[in-house]
Amino acid sequence: MSQPRCVDDRITLKYGAGGGAMRALIEQIFAPGFGAVPGGVGLAEMDDGAAIPIGDRWLVITTDAHVVQPVTFPGGDIGRLAVCGTVNDLAMMGATEPLALTCAAILEDGFPRAELERIWASIRLACDEAGTTIVTGDTKVMRHGELDRIVLTTTGVGLTSRVVTDRGLAPGDVILVTGTMGDHGLAILATRTELALDTTLASDTAPINGLVRRALAAGGPGVVAMKDPTRGGLASALHEMADKSGVGIVLDERAVPIRDEARAIGELLGIDPLVVANEGKAVIGVRREVAGAVLEALRAHPLGRAAAIVGACVAERPGSVIVDTGFGRRLLVEAEGELQPRIC
Amino acid sequence: MSQPRCVDDRITLKYGAGGGAMRALIEQIFAPGFGAVPGGVGLAEMDDGAAIPIGDRWLVITTDAHVVQPVTFPGGDIGRLAVCGTVNDLAMMGATEPLALTCAAILEDGFPRAELERIWASIRLACDEAGTTIVTGDTKVMRHGELDRIVLTTTGVGLTSRVVTDRGLAPGDVILVTGTMGDHGLAILATRTELALDTTLASDTAPINGLVRRALAAGGPGVVAMKDPTRGGLASALHEMADKSGVGIVLDERAVPIRDEARAIGELLGIDPLVVANEGKAVIGVRREVAGAVLEALRAHPLGRAAAIVGACVAERPGSVIVDTGFGRRLLVEAEGELQPRIC
């Protein structure tokens, strides 16, 4: 990210993977020409969403296209994923009470009505959990061969009296995660392998706006940065936060909560749980003096039982993430390339 | 619409065509379980978007997935279409000053960078014309065979102090269109035919929020209903407005402005210009006493030169659209089935 590469002549799978290639695409092609949002957060900030001042509050807005394959997976389906992804992006900006969502569905000709009904039941349930609703949508149908199954694009809006960005870290700040890392990505990958892995690992897809509300209440202005570690996992989230904040982040590897099943699948597939997507977790940066209170608040919530302090910010090596293994230190590298298309 | 059919076991192309099948899909599968928006407009209303009360105003929000094929067509491309479609949906609800848009792009692996840059230049230009900006987005890449080329989903938000719905018509009201009918749909269809039609017909894709602002200023509370005649064309728009308002609409066929080129292509392809999509037009219902002032205001705007009064509302046959041909009367039938997938 600190050395943006030049976008290739063709947009390949790695540009959708949430790492440096995608950021270069946004910086070089999508963002230029769209001005800053005065007093708010716009496209150039490449945060989890945008924030537009309205009176004495901000309207937070965020959008996500969901292309996950398989459509139904252990722990969720594309409908639950769409709602949670959007609700969580709003929460990451401080808008923990989502005002409303929109949902545009693109279906392959011949998509079964029964499956669509199951997906919509899942959408309703996730909306109920998050305390929000779908207020408008769109439907398109494409021919077989033009689209594989179903794509859902959800957009969410929420109001907040304080915007939290992903760039508020300073040396001395503490990094927390709200739970185990890698569950979603590895659960999806496990369904795809020909080994037909016999595992109980399930996606963590969940709306965490209620959990984040607790953290904000406990930490107040001491909560200085938030990001959800989706595509690219904890590694990409920490890299972005470090780079944008101009700090180094030292990650205590042994403190990062990872399920045994996730570790096992990761080892089998040769994939680090720190570089795969989570869909019900947050990375939260806090001032040291509120770290204990925020951790306690997180652990008191059903979705935050495994929350942990996993790192700290330093002035050295701004933009870098250094892993402290307990035996030594190494740089944490972001996933690159086509590790896992259609994971979310 | 007055007799909703049962959704089939498989969702086929007609369910994305904007007619009765799509409305049945929304009514039977998408909308149930999502409550009304208190004091506003929600999913069940199936309007051009939703309206959520915020203080003494409404936040209007609308979303659209764009799948048009070919991606670039006479008069525009998928980028311009996406921005205009969303800006116009906001305007149809009364929000003629779009606060911001979001754009989620899904690309086929290998999509040319140069083409993406052209599309984004077009998006920027359309945003400038409409006086808005893109504030956040998302990017996904799907493999060849999983997605054909590119899909853009745009969402827009705007504030308004008065919401105009598509159901405010009463007997005696007058129906206007802001310009020629059928240009977009027939221009797209002309590019697809093997006859390689030699025509100068171009899509009308344009942001009409400025035009609509003029109409609202001229007609005040006398502007009682608006809808943009996109998928399904004027026929579907009038049917929805008639049905939701509980009035009959008598359409003066000879008063509907249609370009000679559109009429010619329509005759060649056997397609009525009244059932194909427009992307820079509005249908506006007004109280009779303001019809003249609204018409004058529309015609004074570059995008409204061909505006016309095309019909009137009656108490008889609520939900029906009756065409007065000058020689007699017939019912206007909505397009049904797979007339034109991927037209917008």
What can you tell me about this protein's structure?
Two copies of one chain form a homodimer. Chain A is of the alpha+beta class. The first copy, chain A, has two domains: 13-160, PurM-like, N-terminal domain (60s Ribosomal Protein L30, Chain: A); 174-331, PurM-like C-terminal domain (Phosphoribosyl-aminoimidazole Synthetase, Chain A, domain 2, Alpha-Beta Complex). In chain A, 28% of the residues lie in helices and 25% in strands. Chain A contains eight helices and 16 strands. Chain A has helices at 20-30, 78-92, 113-130, 183-192, 209-219, 233-245, 260-269, 291-299, and strands at 10-11, 50-54, 57-66, 72-73, 76-77, 98-108, 111-112, 134-142, 150-160, 174-177, 223-227, 248-252, 283-286, 308-314, 321-324, 329-331. In chain A, the strands form three sheets. In chain A, strands 11-13-10-14-12-15-16 form a seven-stranded mixed sheet. In chain A, strands 2-3-9-6-8 form a five-stranded mixed sheet, covered by helices on one side. In chain A, helix 2 runs parallel beside helix 3 and helix 5 runs antiparallel to helix 8 (291-299). Chain A is globular. Chain A starts with 9 loop residues before the first strand and ends in a 13-residue tail after the last strand. At the A-B interface, strand 1, helix 1, strand 2, strand 3 and strand 6 of A face strand 1, helix 1, strand 2, strand 3 and strand 6 of B. Strand 7 of chain A pairs antiparallel with strand 1 (10-11) of chain B, so a sheet runs across the interface.
Please outline what is shown here:
Chain A is α+β, with helices and mostly antiparallel strands. Chain A has helices spanning 20-30, 78-92, 113-130, 183-192, 209-219, 233-245, 260-269, 291-299; strands spanning 10-11, 50-54, 57-66, 72-73, 76-77, 98-108, 111-112, 134-142, 150-160, 174-177, 223-227, 248-252, 283-286, 308-314, 321-324, 329-331. Chain A has 8 helices and 16 strands.
